[in-house]
Design goal:
The chain is an alpha/beta fold and 650 residues long. It has three domains: 5-145 and 194-250 and 357-565, Glycosidases (TIM Barrel, Alpha-Beta Barrel), CATH 3.20.20; 274-355, no CATH class; 575-649, Golgi alpha-mannosidase II (Immunoglobulin-like, Sandwich). It is built from 16 helices and 26 strands. It is globular.
């Protein structure tokens, strides 16, 4: 399987064809240890050095089943997840070689099924011990934090500490849906990100084994990545590495006492629901000082976020710093917990007269470090880069002087669907005008994705490809209504109608923009259970679940809303595409492209059985059919010029 290169905004294959990558994240449970490390199991994390991730995304014995299914659905790419913790959980510099062997074999097998791979070192809000996943537990110990005290100090929001496992189900009173993201503003996570990216500037006195904390943490992260790179360097289908999933900003760029309770000219972003903390609030809470802070909620009538009450955090005065360790920011004068000295309001925003910028001052050198790390192993690898996801929406894209051959791998979600777990575009317009309602949603999706794609303009003189690294829909919409219909015996497509529509409109938008993408996600261990889902913080976005099994002889067994994501697309184009669209009702696919006679290889169009069960009728003036088999149509252009291809279901 040949590798790919980059030409302006396009991926290109060795024959010169433009390539569109369509795939999935594999998989959502790779964030947690195997087999019982999911957040649907209680834990105090004291075994963090002794866990294993062998078996994530699935045992090797199941690999051919899952990869065969993904190939059948028409995918050609995987964002293959691992974590820093999976590689280096035992302690600094102690690598899990058995896991590395396992992971390399999973990656190799993906190539046998025609799947390109780029490897994602995943994280969410730093670590499992701070409510997410990613970094090993020893990173907290190394900087002087005691994660066993995080919950008592209100320094984290962790399912294993808040959820009542005996009660089960949804628990909005104890652990609200999608609430894990609040950890990005809580002290444990914010402190770690600040040290990871800006330790030299903001904690110059914090050294570990003779190195500043920033250099120490980044060196170990890069070392784990290098270890994986060495294992897969000879696999031609591996395109490269994601730099770091959804990196956090910590306190970088925030005024010390500022609480974001309303949009301002300086910070136009809409406040998030929940508590509103300033960096000083967070640092004092970490030091064991109780703080009373505003609590914000969404007002559906005024469509604004407003304060509804005040909440006192850490009323028992629990410090999360280990015995004998001091806050490194307090040591250099950011604040004084005794309040004898005034806080340094610009500690996280300036160094002298220099105004600090997260992307320019900290992400740019980090991107260069990661590129150097993996390209020392294999110079041809691409870099799939991300900045803090919310900043992309507010105009903070990639910094200048990015490494060459970098891909814009930003993420995009329809936040209303993701957070509210509802999707009904008919509510946006007159219910009788279904087409207009759906078009309005598709137009909105297209506009949002186009803004994200603009970030690629900064990645090269001629731009760079955009691959939407994550997008998707929750499958537990309407409190799991589809699961209830399935349990009642409905095996038709009806239970998944909303999911199919939502995903179809998302892919319609990506077709308009010719975007590559990897949908979130495919989780082999997914269950319809409201306490489990993808086995991580009750998220449930997997396009596959054993609970949707229809029999061993059915390649679609376990698939959810297959008609939404298993759809036609041109995966290799003999020239430059001008238009691509699919009418899911009429089952008609359209491709318009400028044929390039210098490219001898044919255009490849995926025609999945979900929409083309008996093959396709082909109307392609100026092209001849090379073949039509196994869900792939090959067409070769007879000369140059614009070509229009129309495929309709037989």
């Amino acid at each position: 399987m040949d590798g790919l290169d980059i030409k302006g905004r396009w991926f290109v294959d060795p024959q010169g064809r433009r390539v569109i990558l369509r795939g999935v994240n594999l998989g959502g449970d790779c964030k947690v240890p195997y087999p019982d490390g999911g957040t649907n199991h209680s834990s105090d994390f004291r075994d963090h050095r002794d866990v294993s991730f062998i078996g994530r995304p699935f045992p090797l014995g199941e690999a051919r089943e899952h990869f065969g299914r993904l190939k059948h659905w028409g995918f050609n790419c995987l964002r293959l997840l691992t974590t820093w913790e999976a590689v280096e959980h035992k302690g600094p510099g102690i690598l899990d070689t058995a896991y590395l062997d396992y992971f390399a074999e999973i990656s190799r097998l993906a190539g046998e099924f025609g799947l390109y791979v780029f490897i994602d070192f995943h994280q969410d809000v730093w670590s499992r011990m701070s409510g997410g996943d990613g970094a090993p537990g020893w990173t907290f110990e190394a900087v002087g934090l005691d994660f066993t005290k995080f919950h008592a100090a209100d320094a984290t929001h962790v399912m294993q500490c808040k959820y009542d496992y005996a009660r089960g189900g949804r628990q909005e009173d104890r652990y609200p849906q999608m609430s894990w993201a609040s950890n990005s503003h809580l002290p444990a996570t914010a402190i770690m990100w600040t040290l990871f990216f800006a330790g030299r500037d903001m904690a110059p006195g914090l050294t570990i084994e003779g190195r500043n904390v920033q250099d120490y943490l980044q060196a170990h992260y890069a070392g784990a990545m290098r270890a994986v790179a060495e294992r897969v360097k000879d696999q031609k289908h591996v395109l490269g590495f994601d730099t770091l999933n959804e990196p956090g900003a910590g306190y970088i760029g925030q005024k010390l006492t500022y609480r974001h309770v309303a949009p301002t000219a300086e910070n136009p972003e809409r406040p998030r629901p929940g508590i509103a903390l300033s960096p000083l609030d967070g640092l004092l809470i970490a030091r064991g000082v109780a703080r009373t802070v505003p609590f914000l909620a969404w007002d559906s009538e005024t469509r604004t976020m407003h304060q509804t009450k005040e909440v006192t955090l850490n009323p028992n005065g629990v410090s999360i710093w280990r015995d004998g360790r001091e806050c490194p920011f307090e040591q250099v004068g950011a604040y004084d917990a005794t309040r004898q000295n005034p806080p340094n309001e610009t500690f996280f925003t300036h160094r002298g007269v220099h105004e600090l910028q997260l992307e320019r001052d900290y992400m740019r050198p980090f991107f260069a470090h990661i590129a150097d790390t993996v390209r020392t192993v294999k110079p041809s690898w691409m870099i799939f880069a991300e900045v803090e996801p919310h900043r992309v929406f507010t105009g903070h894209g990639f910094p200048p002087d990015m490494p060459p051959r970098t891909v814009n791998a930003s993420h995009w979600y329809d936040l209303a669907t993701l957070g509210g777990k509802k999707f009904n575009p008919r509510e946006l317009r007159d219910a009788r005008d279904v087409g207009a309602a759906e078009k309005a949603v598709a137009d909105r999706f297209t506009s949002q994705l186009a803004n994200i794609a603009k970030a690629a303009d900064a990645l090269g003189a001629d731009g760079a490809p955009t691959l939407i690294g994550e997008f998707g829909t929750p499958f537990d919409l309407d409190e799991g209504a589809a699961y209830a219909e399935w349990a009642a015996g409905d095996r038709s497509t009806a239970p998944w109608a909303k999911h199919v529509l939502a995903q179809s409109l998302m892919y319609d938008a990506m077709d308009r923009l010719f975007l590559s993408s990897t949908q979130w996600n495919y989780t082999a261990s997914n269950r319809n259970d409201a306490s489990a889902g993808d086995n991580w913080n009750q998220e449930d976005l997997s396009i596959y679940s054993r609970d949707q099994s229809t029999g061993d002889n059915d390649v679609n067994s376990g698939g959810r809303a297959i008609d939404g994501f298993s759809r036609p697309y041109a995966r290799r184009i003999q020239g430059e595409p001008k238009r691509m669209a699919f009418d899911r009702v009429q089952k008609i696919f359209l491709l318009v492209f400028d044929a390039d006679p210098s490219i001898s290889a044919a255009t490849e169009i995926v025609t999945p059985l979900a929409h083309f069960p008996h093959g396709a009728r082909i109307h392609a003036p100026g092209c001849h059919v090379v073949s039509q088999a196994n869900g792939i149509v090959l067409l070769a252009a007879d000369g140059s010029g614009e070509r229009t291809v129309i495929l309709s279901a037989k």
